[in-house]
Design goal:
With 163 residues, this protein is α/β, with parallel strands linked by helices. The chain has five helices and four strands.
């Protein structure tokens, strides 16, 4: 049975595609690519149909990740097929939980940095869109750090289904 993860930020051109590609790479490295499907979306449709921000693409490629992406808006009907919805900041978390058709669906929404024990109480991945390249580098570092814990959590869920 496939486990489905969707990363969500505001416009689906910076943080969520970055998280999608990093986590998809971690899933493949763990040999789970046949069991885990990873994608991303935005809470809004402002950039729907566009590619990822060129700065996101540059940072991903410089660090060995794929970067082919088309932005899309999160649809509440997806909750039924998703196992985990990963918000990149507290605003996205609140928006997604409001969109959830059921309490069970709302419980599927988690903050990415909650999977990084070193994050402490600062669980937002700051939006790099209005800043320079250093913001995109910092975003990637946060995403990579949280992806290790997220992978462990997803692996536990996938192995629990197989048992």
């Amino acid at each position: 049975m496939t486990y489905r993860v969707c990363f969500v930020c505001t416009g689906n051109i910076c943080r969520s595609p970055m998280a999608e590609f990093v986590f998809r790479t971690r899933v493949a490295e763990a040999g789970l690519e046949d069991l885990v499907v990873v994608d991303s979306a935005g809470t809004g449709g402002w950039h729907e149909g566009e590619g990822a921000d060129p700065r996101t693409v540059a940072v991903l490629r410089e660090n060995g990740y794929d970067a082919e992406h088309t932005a899309r808006q999160f649809d509440p009907s997806w909750f039924g097929r998703l196992d985990l919805v990963v918000a990149l900041d507290a605003g996205h978390l609140r928006a997604l939980r409001r969109l959830a058709p059921t309490e069970r669906d709302a419980e599927k929404v988690r903050l990415l940095r909650s999977y990084d024990p070193a994050a402490g109480d600062d669980l937002d991945v700051p939006d790099p869109y209005y800043g320079g390249p250093e913001g995109f580098d910092a975003c990637l570092e946060m995403v990579e750090a949280a992806s290790r814990g997220l992978l462990a959590a997803v692996r536990e869920q996938v192995e629990g289904r197989a048992a």
